[in-house]
């Protein structure tokens, strides 16, 4: 048994040509390891190959080449064990409208072969905040409640790995906060979390490590702190006491005048100091009312690697 929850080597997936589309290589030799106990971000633009990768992990899509090990079990040699080690919270709801939440969890547990005596239906309903809706039909649940039920279904067989595919897309702030509180608690209990999201601030706050996929290949994989450290750009936003034009700027500093009168200056922190920009502004006869500084965030890194 290794220290990795997931080991992917040379993973390829090519979709055959159809009458409407040519053959498409969705994954182009992915090599990726995800350590046990991590909250790991899997990011990429639409069409990058994230969903194909997750569906292969879930056993819903057959790979074209390569190997996948989940919790030490080779997906080809031990398909049942590898599938039992992972729970998937899908992006799209797939609930039977005529089942209650309690019934949905019970049926899902049965599909994984969990004996009735070992099923945790009541415990999971409490975790996802649906105890009072246990016997309501799924069709009567709100969109947020259905998202919570999807999380519950992913947990019925006590997987070691939980994959969250765009878990907070279209949900309100209260549900988002509740979901992340649950995810942090599960992670503290030892569960490995894999997260895909388009909310990059969310990934920045939650993830220990991040891999960015683009055009079917991993373009980078590093700790969140190291990824943020790759860009040393900073932006200084100055509010003048009265309307002013941008002063002349040397190479390495870019400026922008905003409609509300603010002036922003982007520069490399390793080359230029903020005091030098303030001096340029003062020398241009601009009186400063307020100053704000912004460092590069994960969105800047993402755009620099995928644009």
UniProtKB/TrEMBL annotation:
Q: Which InterPro entries match?
A: AAA+_ATPase (IPR003593), ABC_transporter-like_ATP-bd (IPR003439), ABC_transporter-like_CS (IPR017871), ABC_transporter_ATP-binding (IPR050763), P-loop_NTPase (IPR027417)
| ABC transporter domain location | 6-240
Recorded GO MF terms: ATP binding; ATP hydrolysis activity
Supply the EC number(s).
3.6.3.-
Does the entry feature the keyword Transport, yes or no? yes
Q: Which UniProt keywords apply?
A: ATP-binding, Hydrolase, Nucleotide-binding, Transport
Instruction: Quote the SMART domains the UniProt record gives.
Output: AAA (SM00382)
Instruction: Give the EC class as a word.
Output: hydrolase
Hydrolase among keywords: yes
Q: What is this protein called?
A: Daunorubicin/doxorubicin resistance ATP-binding protein DrrA
Species for this entry: Yoonia vestfoldensis
| This protein's encoding gene | drrA
């Amino acid at each position: 048994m290794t220290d990795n929850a997931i080991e992917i080597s040379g993973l390829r997936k090519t979709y055959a040509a159809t009458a409407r589309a040519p053959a498409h290589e969705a994954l182009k030799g992915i090599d990726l390891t995800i350590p046990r106990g991590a909250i790991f971000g899997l990011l990429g633009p639409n069409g990058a190959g994230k969903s194909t990768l997750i569906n292969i992990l879930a056993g819903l899509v057959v790979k074209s080449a390569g190997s996948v090990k989940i919790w030490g079990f080779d997906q080809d040699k031990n398909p049942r064990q590898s599938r039992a080690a992972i729970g998937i919270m899908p992006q799209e709801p797939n609930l039977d409208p005529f089942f209650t939440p309690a019934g949905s969890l019970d049926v899902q547990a049965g599909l994984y072969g969990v004996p009735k005596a070992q099923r945790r239906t009541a415990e999971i309903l409490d975790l996802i905040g649906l105890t009072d809706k246990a016997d309501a039909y799924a069709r009567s649940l709100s969109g947020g409640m259905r998202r919570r039920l999807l999380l519950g279904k992913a947990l019925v067989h006590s997987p070691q790995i939980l994959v969250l595919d765009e878990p907070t897309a279209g949900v309100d702030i209260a549900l988002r906060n509740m979901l992340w509180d649950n995810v942090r608690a599960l992670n503290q209990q030892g569960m490995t979390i894999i997260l895909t999201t388009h909310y990059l601030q969310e990934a920045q706050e939650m993830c220990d490590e991040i891999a960015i996929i683009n055009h079917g290949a991993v373009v980078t994989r590093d700790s969140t702190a190291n990824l943020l450290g790759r860009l040393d750009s900073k932006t200084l936003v100055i509010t003048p006491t009265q309307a002013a034009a941008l002063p002349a700027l040397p190479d390495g500093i870019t400026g922008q005048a905003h409609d509300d009168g603010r002036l922003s200056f982007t520069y490399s922190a390793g080359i230029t100091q903020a005091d030098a920009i303030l001096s340029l502004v003062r020398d241009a006869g601009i009186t400063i009312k307020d100053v704000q500084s912004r460092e590069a965030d994960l969105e800047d890194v993402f755009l620099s690697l995928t644009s």
